Amino acid sequence: MAELATLARPYAGAVFDTAKESDDFALWSETLSFLASVLENEQVSSIITNPRIDMSTVRRILLDICESQMTEAGINLVKILMDNDKLLIIPQIAFQYERLRSEYQGYVEVEIASAYPVTPVQQQQTEAALQRRLGKGIVINITIDNTLIGGWLVRIGDQVIDLSIKGRLQQLANACEVVCRSV
Q1: 130 and 163 within one domain
Q2: Burial of 70 (0-12, 13-18, 19+ CB in 10 A)
């Protein structure tokens, strides 16, 4: 994963710079999201990774899919990535672009995995607390994860705050294992 991130970094930076020059952040977010979803499609992925399919065929298929959905700048990005054999890093480019965009625009994306649905009041309180703590605007994305048993798993960039019952049980199990080994 670190290798993909390293490969994607200059491309994400270039896309970000282009978006900043044209003040078209949303368009580039949509473009990169679309490209990532195309590449995550099983049929497209199997074509791209199949060594028996020549690159000109892959290029034609991918451009046919993308041309009606993207601007000329987006198509040029696809061509550059194809020429450099870097198509598979598009999801990582999209991820890094969104991180650069959020930093530039002064907000932080927060991912919350919850065992149960989060009420609007809980979301507002959490957003207010995180804004005070981080000093930035917050965008919260909430998913339901039944494996947590209860509580939340909060991701803020690279930081993870585990407030779940599953996490606490794991901590307890680890502590018991350490105690049992020392006895």
Answers
A1: yes
A2: buried
Instruction: Provide the CATH number for the domain around residue 82.
Output: 1.10.520.20
Kind plus residue range of the DSSP H or E element containing 154: strand 151-156
Q: Enter the pTM of the model.
A: 0.67
Do 80 and 23 lie in one domain? The reply is: yes
Pairwise CA distance, residues 165 & 78, whole Å: 44
Among 84, 102, 120, the domain-final residue is 102
For the chain, give percent helix, strand, coil, nearest 5: 70, 15, 15
Alpha-carbon distance 113 to 142, whole Å? 6
57-101 residue pLDDT tens: 999 999 999 999 999 999 999 999 999 989 989 999 998 999 899
Name the one residue in this structure whose structure tokens are 């991180």. Answer: 99
State which residues form the domain around 96: 2-102
**pLDDT beyond 90 at 8:** yes
Helices (H), 52-159: 55-67, 72-83, 90-105, 120-134
Indicate whether 91 and 129 sit together in one domain.
no
Radius of gyration of the chain (CA): 21
